[in-house]
Amino acid sequence: MKKTVIDFLLLENKQLNKDNFLLILQSPLPVSGIFPGQFINIEIKESTEIFLRRPFSILDVDYEKQTISLLVKILGRGSKKLTEARSGQKINGIFPLGKSFTLPEKTDNVILIGGGSGVAPMLFLAKIAGLEPTNVTILIGARSASDHVDISAYKSFGQFYFTTEDGSLGEKGYVTNHPVFAENLNHYTKIYTCGPDLMMKAIGRKAIEENIFCEVSLENMMACGFGVCLCCVEDTKAGHKCVCTDGPVFNVNDLKW
Ligand code: FES
């Protein structure tokens, strides 16, 4: 799909927990060319201090209703300002940006691992992968139960497992300690992950060791979102690559991990 700059209509802005909000944007144009892993660069309006757009990964797309759902976590002034937007407000976005995950084959048995706001593209991927739910394992990690977002709308797309650092939901510890990852990795033909750098590196290195296909969605700092400012560069085996245009999704074998 060609990159487009448009004014979306904000249909809904719902607080999910302390730091996470669900924003549903109505597009005046079809959104049929958007896939999991791609992102949207949003202009933060009504702020004299914030000049740069902010990238947000896409949680869901309703191709018929032409809506895009974003999971917005408050990380700084830009994201905070966006969470204060009201229904009916216009929100300007450039989309779709970046490369998406490679969709699995019908015969694949996949594990999708999300940490923090990295859960968003994992839920979107689980939904549109078109696999039998028994072949989709979704593992989500957070600090505490109160940081997890409600996944009930995605329950039918796979088998969910949770970890929390304080043990308040699911297994205590990190996603890499959970038995569905730590003890069962050879069960999967593909691994997809998005979340904190350390988490993805631990997952990616294990995938390389076990020779399992693995794609990660890097969360490098971004500004322009289309390959101009070079602030998102990642040093890969093929040289320096812009995460915003060559990624954010990379195969771990292409990274220097
Ligand atoms: S964000 Fe500007 S080059 Fe990638």
| Rg value | 18 Å
CATH C-level class of the largest domain is: Alpha Beta
Kindly report the name of the CATH homologous superfamily of the largest domain: Nucleotide-binding domain of ferredoxin-NADP reductase (FNR) module
**Looking at the chains present, what oligomeric state does this protein adopt?**
single chain
β-strand percent reads 25-35%
The second-level CATH architecture of the largest domain is 3-Layer(aba) Sandwich
- Strand count, sense and closure of the main sheet? 7 strands, mixed
Low-confidence stretches: none
What are the salient characteristics of this protein?
single chain, 257 residues, mainly beta, Elongation Factor Tu (Ef-tu), domain 3, Rossmann fold, 2 domains, seven-stranded mixed beta sheet, six-stranded antiparallel β-barrel, 4 helices, globular, binds FE2/S2 (inorganic) cluster
Mind explaining what this structure looks like?
The chain has two domains: 4-97, Elongation Factor Tu (Ef-tu), domain 3 (Beta Barrel); 110-217, Rossmann fold (3-Layer(aba) Sandwich), CATH 3.40.50. The chain is 14% helix and 35% strand. The protein is built from four helices and 15 strands. The chain has helices at residues 77-83, 119-128, 179-182, 197-210, and strands spanning 4-15, 20-26, 39-42, 54-62, 67-73, 90-97, 110-115, 136-142, 159-164, 171-172, 190-194, 213-217, 233-236, 239-242, 249-251. A seven-stranded mixed beta sheet has the order 10-9-8-7-11-12-15, sandwiched between helices. The protein has a six-stranded antiparallel barrel with strand order 1-2-5-4-3-6. A hairpin with a 4-residue loop joins strand 1 (4-15) and strand 2. The chain is globular. Residues 222-225, 227-232, 242, 244 line the site of FE2/S2 (inorganic) cluster. The site of FE2/S2 (inorganic) cluster (FES) has 12 residues, from loops.
